[in-house]
Specification:
This protein has 4 helices and 14 strands. The protein has helices at residues 12-16, 40-60, 115-128, 178-182, and strands at 24-28, 31-35, 63-66, 71-74, 77-79, 83-86, 99-100, 105-109, 133-138, 143-150, 153-154, 158-161, 165-167, 175-177.
Length: 186
């Protein structure tokens, strides 16, 4: 019988050695976090946001990457945001295998199995490594929470509902209607 794989004390090279089996694997301070593939509605929301950012990228520069795309904050802390955007001025952070350091904007879309992970653990990592703006799209209550870094901390989020528009303070000129983000279920 094969020995179980370790789940703590891991670094990026350990993460890269796992098989490509459709599971999302991330490291938070050396701890392996594994989550299943998201649901279809989740993915449709990710595509809508990534498509809007791709349109922005074509007009203004920068780089948009949907998951799976690693952000290597430290050798033992590697996350896969649902969508990340790096402005043209920080283009050098995007490498062939991963983005090094903080993207300018990260977006996480809720899933039943990942709510606590995204709102607590991943948000703490984004704050600690100075991601200027973090959007949390909450599909259960149909809203977008926007966290902005001020004095090295995320304060209370600015919450946007259907009928409102979310505008980025970091990706200059980028905005989306909440109804466009959420769209129809099917």
């Amino acid at each position: 019988m094969a020995a179980p794989l370790p789940t703590t004390g891991l670094v990026y090279d350990d993460l890269a050695a796992f098989p490509d089996d459709g599971l999302r694997r991330e490291l938070i301070d050396g701890e392996l976090v594994v989550t299943p593939a998201p649901r279809d509605y989740h993915q449709r929301v990710v595509v809508r946001i990534a498509a809007a950012l791709l349109d922005y990228e074509r007009r203004h520069g920068g780089v948009v990457l949907p998951a799976p795309s690693d952000v290597r904050f430290a050798d033992d802390t590697v996350l896969e945001p649902d969508v990340l955007f790096v402005t043209a001025g920080h283009r050098d952070r995007v490498g062939e295998r991963y983005t090094t350091g903080p993207p300018d904007l990260v977006v996480e879309v809720s899933s039943p199995s990942t709510r606590r992970l995204e709102l607590v653990r991943k948000r703490e990592v984004y704050e600690r490594f100075a991601v200027p703006e973090y959007w949390y799209v909450d599909l259960d209550v149909e809203r977008v929470e926007v966290y902005r870094l001020r004095d090295g901390r995320y304060g209370a989020p600015v919450v946007h509902y259907a009928g409102e528009t979310v505008a980025s303070a970091v990706v200059e000129g980028f905005a989306m209607a909440v109804s466009e983000i959420l769209g129809p279920w099917d």
